[in-house]
Design a protein that fits this description.
Layout lengths: L1 H16 L12 H18 L2 H6 L1 E9 L2 E4 H8 L2 E17 L2 E14 L2 E16 L2 E11 L2
Parallel strand pairs: 1-6
Antiparallel strand pairs: 1-2, 3-4, 4-5, 5-6
Amino acid sequence: MKLALLPLALASLMLFSAGSAQPQPAAEPLQPQIVAKEREGLEALKSGSLGVFAALTADDAVFVDAQGVAGKAEVMKNVAGFRLVDFSMQDVRFVQISPTSGLITYKLTETGTSHERTFSAVAYVSSVWAQRAGKWVCLFSQETAAK
């Protein structure tokens, strides 16, 4: 499965860089910026700061999990009854897609409440982040339950 991400990342890189003479490198390495934004989103779900979570999510974002595919409006409706109590990110990996975007994957261990039910879960997460108008936003996120 990890190898399957490589062609996607390469295709995305080709799409983002097509038509530009030479992409300029980012002022800072992207990995720490993107990992920090992913953590910020998780912290927002922990503190109940849904406005922060919404601001970190692109209006045209796509989320995928065991329930199917959802857009931002549906995700925001669902997270209204969701609160993380604790989480950890392990084995974080990064692929730069373009000078202003990247893909991270990691193992997420989380506990919390979802619509008044306590849960504990382990999942593998993939997220694509990009800068739009000088602001980092999540464009895509997929969560797969770990076995």
